[in-house]
Design goal:
The protein is of the alpha+beta class. Helices cover 73% and strands 10% of the residues. The protein is built from twelve helices and ten strands. The strands form two sheets. Strands 2-1-5-4-3 form a five-stranded antiparallel beta sheet, with helices on both faces. Helix 1 (10-76) packs antiparallel against helix 7, helix 1 runs antiparallel to helix 10 and helix 10 crosses helix 11. 19% of the residues are buried. Mean pLDDT is 79; it is low at 1-5 and 268-272. Residues 613-667 form the T-SNARE coiled-coil homology domain. Residues 359-412 form the HAMP domain.
Amino acid sequence: MQTGVGFFTLSKKIPSLVIGAALLSTLAIGISSVLSGSSILEEASKTRLEALTASRATQINEIFQRLKTDLNLLGQTPSTIKGVVSFTMGFGSSGRSGLRKKYITNNPTPEDRKAYDGEDDFSFYGQQHKQNHPYFRSLIESYGYPELMLFDLKGNMIYSVNKRDDFASKIIKKDEPDSPLKTLVQTLIDEKKTDLVLAADYFSYPSLAGQKAAFAGRGIFAQDGNLEGVIVLQVPDKGINAILGDRSGLGESGRMMLVGNDGLLRGTSTGPGTSKLDLPVLSAAKSQKFATDVSVSEDGRNTLYAAQTVSFFDKVWFVLSEQEMDEILKPAHDLSNRILITSVALFILIGAVGMYASRSIVSPLQKITQAMMNIANGDLEQETPALSRSDEIGSMAHAVEVFKNNEKEAVYLRQSQEAERIRSEADKMQAMLEIADGLEQRTGEAIQQMNTVIEMLKSNSSEMAQTSQATRTKAQDVQSFAQTTSLNVSTVASATQQLKESSLEIAHEMDKATHTTKDASEAVSGAMQVVEGLSQSVESIGDIVELIQNIAEQTNLLSLNATIEAARAGEAGKGFSVVASEVKGLAMQTADATEGVSEKIAQINSETELVIKALKDISDKVFEVQNASVGIASATEEQNTSIDDINQSVGEASSGTQHISDYMEDLTQHSEETNASVENMHTAIGELAHSFTVLGNEIDAFVSSIRNTSNKG
């Protein structure tokens, strides 16, 4: 049978393995190159962005440091000290409205205001302005500051280079809203520290039409240490924006920003912004002063960020740079495309080489395979191919040649073994005939003897069956008699049980009656005691009524005497006579009432005696009933004892008859089992006889079969 046909032949596996290995190797090289290139590009971009950020941060720090240095120098120069003192004096004499008209209204454009020195202002302020304004103007132009302002100790802006709309105004007012500039000036005035330089963070400055501006300032102190005023410089946005706007090294998508501690933009290449940034790199830079991170930008692009802190006086800002990762990794993407093209070309080349190599190996292998298939099908005369080759395929061909020669020897050996087998079979057949003759003789004699024994067993089993049937009939008669007796005994036991239950019920009821009569006797005794107590109470009430009658008679007598005495007294005793008459009337009413009470008490005493007599009669009858109940209870108890004796005898009789019935039932069951066993034995003997007959027939057939086989052999 031919095997190995299909996809899993060497003609397909070898080219597939060569091409697959080439594909995997080129893919592995390409992927590792792309990943390595991407990692190198990302690290290089981080290093480059870090260097750019550090450079921009250094430049901005220099601007802030120079601003601080300039403020300290200006705050200590005699020209500034003299100027602020002179402007303070002139401001007070010229007045706010006069200065604004002279320097703002009469010079409508910002250029005119900045260029006006005060040529036509002959006031003291104007003279000081002509002396100091050119100096301050040239100073901010040379240093690149947008504005310079001077404030007196009341918060009045007494001088500014550009004379914006807030010139000559008072910025420290209670009703004015707080602004960073107001807070700056107020703090410097309040603190009065010679080395204190403060900054006002970017805010919407009204004098610049709402544009954002930041300021820094310090106090101006005289030689004696007294504070004379405050000088303020505006942060130079142009210099900061020029630094941030330098896109060299940032690519097409990169930019540089100045961010405050609150995340708001302080400066961009187009000026201060209003966007708020919430980036992890800023949080990391707060603690580390410098950080890099890849995050998703507001437009959803992966972006590389670098941040470094800068000190804006007492505030912390960040120089933040960014560049999109797509632009950073673009060389890696180009490299991956080139690697892909190279991999495809290399894949095609290796595939062609693999196909050629596989054909040079597979073709001779197929010929050797066919030769082996022919040998397996019995063709041992063919020529073995590739015997002349000196490589592994030649070794395989020599192995096939050896296999073919071995197969020839095996064929010769099988033929010799077949002849020997035929001779051995003839000898075995003769021995089997002899065995068959002996088997036929011995089994015939044994079967004859077994038939004799089986006939005897059949006769004995019939006699046992008759005996078992007679025993079962007698046992059933005895069992029926025992069951009838048991039923009668059970009837007697049931009647006796009912009699006992009735007797117990009578005893229970008599017990209740006894307790009831006892309770009634006790209740009658209690009632008699209560009635006797009532009789005694009534007698006591009679005594009290008699006492009241005596008191009423005495009161009547006294009222009579009082009436007589009142009559003797004449007109003076009339009132007393009336009272005596009233007392007499009450005494007579009391006497009448007590007489009625006495009659009722007598009636109650009479009825109480009748009640006591009736209760005594009831108590006697209850006692008689109680004695009768005790007698009945005693008789009922004796009757229950007799009934228990009857129940015990009936139970013993019932138990005896039940034992007899159980014994007879067991005997009947054993008889039936014996009868069934005898029948089964009789059936088994018949089957045994049939089996021996079949066995004899089978032995005869077996012997005949052996003889027939021997004859055919």
